[in-house]
């Protein structure tokens, strides 16, 4: 399993409502807190949903 750290950038399978698929990891643990690179909105995902949503690590930063 891939290890994700705070500050890592990821690309998700489905884009956010603003159209951006690039996210920055803000918090890790039992759940993950992500911040959208385009609009700045933060979301919390359970560990299971997070691992299903991640397409690739190392997305482009703004």
Describe the structure.
With 62 residues, the protein is mainly beta. The protein has one domain. Helix content is 11%, strand content 40%. It contains one helix and five strands; from the N terminus they run E-E-E-E-H-E. A five-stranded antiparallel β-sheet has the order 4-3-2-1-5, covered by helices on one side. The mean pLDDT is 91.
Write the layout of secondary structure elements.
Elements: E1 9-12, E2 22-27, E3 31-36, E4 42-46, H1 47-53, E5 54-57
Antiparallel strand pairs: 1-2, 1-5, 2-3, 3-4
Q: Sketch the major β-sheet.
A: 5 strands, antiparallel
State mean pLDDT (0 to 100 scale). 91
Report the helical percentage. 10-25%
Rg (CA only)? 10 Å
Total number of helices:
1
- The total strand number stands at 5
Strand residue percentage: 35-45%
Order of helices and strands: EEEEHE
- The helix-and-strand class reads mainly beta
Please give the order of strands in the largest beta sheet: 4-3-2-1-5
Give the overall shape, derived from the CA principal axes.
globular
- Structurally, the number of domains stands at 1
Distance N to C terminus: 27 Å
Would you identify the regions where 5 or more consecutive residues have pLDDT less than 50? none
């Amino acid at each position: 399993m891939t290890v994700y750290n705070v500050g890592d950038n990821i690309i998700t399978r489905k884009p956010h409502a603003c159209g951006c698929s690039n996210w920055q990891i803000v918090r890790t643990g039992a759940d993950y807190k992500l911040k959208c690179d385009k609009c700045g909105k933060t979301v919390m995902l359970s560990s299971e949903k997070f691992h299903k949503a991640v397409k690739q690590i190392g997305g482009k930063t703004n």
